[in-house]
Amino acid sequence: MKGLFVSPSPHRAADMSTSKIMLTVIIALFPAAMAGCVFFGPRAAAVLAVCIAACVIFEALCRIVMKKDQTIGDLSAVVTGLLLGMNLPATVPFYVAVIGSFVAIVVVKQLFGGIGQNFANPAIAARIVLMLSFTPQMSNWVKPYWYSGAVDAETSATPLAAEWLTYSESGANFKMAPFTLSEMFWGETGGCIGETCAAMLILGGLFLIVIKVISPATPIAFIGSFAVLTLIYTGSLTETVYGVLAGGLLIGAFFMATDYATTPLTTKGKVVFGIGCGLVTFIIRSFGSFPEGVSFSILLMNLLTPYIDRLTKASPFGAKKPVKAKS
Amino acid sequence: MNKLNGVHLSHNKGTKNCETIDFPLPKSVVIPMSQHMGAPCECLVKKGDTVTVGQKIGDTDAFMSAPIHSPVSGTVSDVIDFLLTSGAVCKAAVIESDGLQTVCPDVKPPEITDKQSLIAAVRESGLTGLGGAGFPTHIKLNFDAVKTPVDTLVINAAECEPYITSDFREMMESPMDVIEAILLVQKYLGIPICKLCIEDNKPEAIALMKKKTEDIKSIQIVALPSSYPQGAEKVIVYSATGRIVAEGELPSNQGVMVMNVSTAAHIYRYSQDGMPLIKRRLTVDGDAVTKNAGNYFVPIGTRVSELLEHCGVTEAKKVLYGGPMMGLCLYDTDQPVLKNNNAILAFKNGESPKTTACIRCGRCVRACPLNLMPVMIENAYNAEDIEELKRLKVTLCMNCGCCSYACPAHRPLAEINQLAKAMIPRK
């Protein structure tokens, strides 16, 4: 028998591919994205669609211009577009969303070599660029169901920007949260399209952990360290839970701080990364001039990832330390 | 004790109930002079010589080697240059069988009275590791009892590769050969404990061996979790004893000797009848096999094409010596069965999946039983950074293939590890 294939072992591969991984991430993000569309209406759905379409088109054009293999089939551009859209307010002008997609795909991802080579999470970097460049458009928050006409005022504050009310009762001062924890959990607050619904984000995150697409180490370390620091600082369990549910913490911890390319490889590294994110988020939220710090914390830790990787290398089984040559 | 990483494979042990049958005697056999790790043998016969069954036809004075014997009686029709799957070329004797199977007068049970006579007998039997690596067994037995005393004999019956059932059949069909062999080795080498390690996907073998060793205190049956590569030497030593065979060490440095179960059984059989290693049990299977998949006693040197024909293989795109994880591809089915072939597998699809860019998911890191970081090794290899390759300990890689298997981008990581090893200059 002739014409046999000859290749090095192994001759079997697990039934997994990059596009399958990306598809599971899209599925995991879907419930939270849908919740955002329910709260913020057709306009939110349109923002998501614009981001996804722009990201895919930019990716395709980049690959054509750079004369490289087409990679839109791996669905990573869809994930980036979806994540970026979920990190924008529903009222954002479409041209801002397109600029964000350009920054994410062209500047952060393709100019650095495409999938797996980007130094920072494309969606996070794009969100930060937009936040600093289009601050008014990026902080125009609307109330849930604003589009239905059932709510009297359209604009709303986000849970992190809203003032806590102080009231006195029988001589003691109490603080009252601007939103109830139930509203926070189900996402009926102002905020970015995909970040408000904690319930659906946790559901999606747990799905990814159960099917082993992401490691639980990062979200546990991120959310855990943030919660512990907040609890120590405020001494209030309500404020701690409020802080965990508020802003981009959950979408950040489950979906952005677990991005493969820009986070450490080993479990040890992932724990360091998560704790770093939790610490920076806590510092910015408590002492910084921005109400929210999740994006900045993840971006900062993205930049530290090569160093974390270096310091948290796996120790090979039975390896001997090199004997230094005697001089 | 930590569990080592690995991957979970589908077992495909469809031939486990196929009792071993004798494969019909081939008309002609091809016997390469290099069928083991180490120096090739010199061919002791020339064109036109007549040979008998069990006659030594290849040997050498080199330390690391094992002699080679004729599996048939007949005439040497040619001595050819033969291209091995490793890419090396060696001499090979082509022998036409006369069908009489006249046994060589030299074949008689050896006299074994002490360690040295056991080792000499094992060398004469031409025995090499039958599990795949083909390490000459007499060298393994000849450990230095003073510098590296061995207190535990680990018999490797993990058989963690998919499809292969030849070691399983060895235990089911001749359990007493295995046990007698263990007792023989323990007696003459002074090894107090033996751990016979079997993966727990073979409960029948575990039950049978437990029953047969009920009254033998020195032999323990150990059931290991079915996780690839459980049967790799360092992995099985750790799983069975908790000892870590460190970088640059042999198992004997940790007081352990590892031997494949079929290899052990052959020692006992040789001690009884003096017939050297001229045939072996192997599994023929794979999705291109249309009939007669099963286990066969096959004379060494039988052309694989004869096995495939017997098993109804007409369209195969890939044929392997050994299992799908570590097996070697045949370039031509006229290549012969060698001493270390525990299986011949034929598959319809030979193409490897398309490679895409690394996404740094870390699955290779989590799959590596030795905790290496294939993703970083690949980067260092591409950068030709030899110092970094040394720091990443690529030389520890045993080419089990878990990293390539687990990679969603289908990158040939195991292959790159081997290339990276070769990049490091030898001292």
Question: Can you tag this structure with a few keywords?
Answer:
heterodimer, A: 327 residues, mainly alpha, two-stranded antiparallel sheet, 13 helices, 2 strands, B: 427 residues, alpha/beta, 6-stranded mixed beta sheet, 4-stranded antiparallel beta sheet, globular
Structure, explained:
The complex is a heterodimer of chains A (327) and B (427). Chain A is mainly alpha-helical. Chain A is built from 13 helices and 2 strands. Chain A has helices at 18-40, 42-65, 76-86, 94-109, 122-133, 135-138, 181-186, 198-210, 217-234, 237-245, 249-256, 267-287, 294-311; strands at residues 165-169, 172-176. A two-stranded antiparallel ribbon of chain A has the order 1-2. In chain A, α4 packs across α5, α9 packs antiparallel against α10 (237-245) and α12 (267-287) runs antiparallel to α13. Chain A is globular, with a radius of gyration of 22 Å. The mean pLDDT of chain A is 91. Chain B is an alpha/beta fold and 427 residues long. In chain B, a hairpin with an 8-residue loop joins β5 (56-59) and β6. Chain B is globular and about 60 Å long. Classes of the chains: A mainly alpha (327), B alpha/beta (427). At the A-B interface, α1 of A face β15, β16, α12 and α13 of B.
